[in-house]
Write a structure and sequence with these properties.
Blueprint lengths: L1 H31 L21 E6 L1 H4 L4 H12 L8 E6 L22 E4 L3 E4 L8 E4 L12 H17 L3 E5 L10 H16 L2 E3 L1 H11 L15 H16 L14 H19 L2
Parallel strand pairs: 1-2, 1-5, 5-6, 6-7
Antiparallel strand pairs: 3-4
Helix pairs in contact: 1-6, 3-7, 4-5, 6-7, 6-8, 7-8
Length: 285
């Protein structure tokens, strides 16, 4: 009887191992298939402002995880322009779980509000005065909103409304194409399509972070780009998104940039190359 149970357990273990292998192979095939990445090609390949230095990030927890994406992005810009580090600034406005329609974009440009003052020196207050509050506004919808049957139209509606508001205030909008859930790689193509269509419709740049995630997963499947919830970005995921935004806005390779704290050189170099290759391919530059 004990031998029978032992054999049964061994057989069950083998069946589970085979099932896991098949699931991994199927998931890897979806991540690694270029056909799953995008259909519509972007019409806009330039942000529309020369050498931008001030940025507003508008989104949700996908942005604020890992000490915030805007800080990673600003660091990349500062490293590339070492002599003018102080000229670069970025502000993040995020609401947990939010879609684009949760944000009052007009209010983010009201006088004496965002970026009105800064803490400098020994906890001193410096009141700021800017001729142009922000050069670029990077915005994203909730992780499912652009492809959800009940929210898809709202995504396109507010991508248009917010783009118009940003442009009216003298800044340039950028749509951040978000990434698929770790266990739903088929989302990549769906999100890529809707973000690219919205970018083309509103004549604004799209930063293809979602496609960079797919490329990274296809080339290095064991690299974790997600948190345990399979949705939010890991530190590597946040860095990859920031790299993709940087490469998209500046049309400049981030390869060779110093890695962020806690990341080894090899991983940083891999993510930098993935971001640049993705941007080059997406825009066919």
């Amino acid at each position: 009887m004990n031998v029978h149970f032992a054999n049964t357990r061994a057989i069950n273990a083998k069946i589970k191992a085979i099932a896991r292998s098949l699931l991994f192979a199927a998931t890897f095939a979806i991540w690694s298939s270029p056909a799953a990445w995008a259909d519509t090609k972007p019409l806009i390949a330039d942000v529309g402002v020369v050498a931008p230095k001030s940025f507003l990030f508008v989104g949700n927890s996908f942005m604020y995880y890992n000490n915030s994406m805007h800080k990673q992005f600003r660091r990349l810009a500062q490293i590339a322009d070492e002599g003018h580090r102080a000229d670069y600034r970025a502000t993040s406005v995020t609401i947990s779980g939010s879609g684009l329609n949760w944000h009052d974009m007009e209010s983010y440009f009201r006088p004496n509000a965002l970026a009105e003052y800064s803490f400098v020196g020994d906890n001193e207050i410096r009141f700021n005065s800017y001729e142009q509050l922000y050069d670029v506004v990077i915005m994203m919808d909730c992780s499912q909103c652009p492809v959800h049957p009940q929210l898809k139209e709202r995504f396109h509606e507010y991508a248009a409304k917010h783009s118009e508001t940003v442009i009216r205030h003298g800044a340039r909008p950028v749509l951040l194409m978000t990434w698929a859930y770790e266990d739903r790689p088929e989302m990549t193509k769906l999100l890529a399509e809707e973000y690219t269509v919205a970018g083309n419709t509103n004549k604004v740049l799209v930063a293809p972070a979602g496609l960079a995630f797919a490329r990274a997963k296809s080339e290095r499947p064991t690299l974790s780009l997600h948190q345990a919830d399979k949705r939010h970005p890991s530190p590597a995921g946040t860095y990859l998104a920031a790299l993709t935004i940087y490469a998209s806005i500046y049309n400049r390779s981030p390869v060779g940039s110093a890695p962020p704290a806690g990341m080894d050189n090899a991983t940083a170099a891999f993510l930098q190359q993935v971001a640049w290759d993705t941007v080059e391919e997406y825009f066919e530059r």
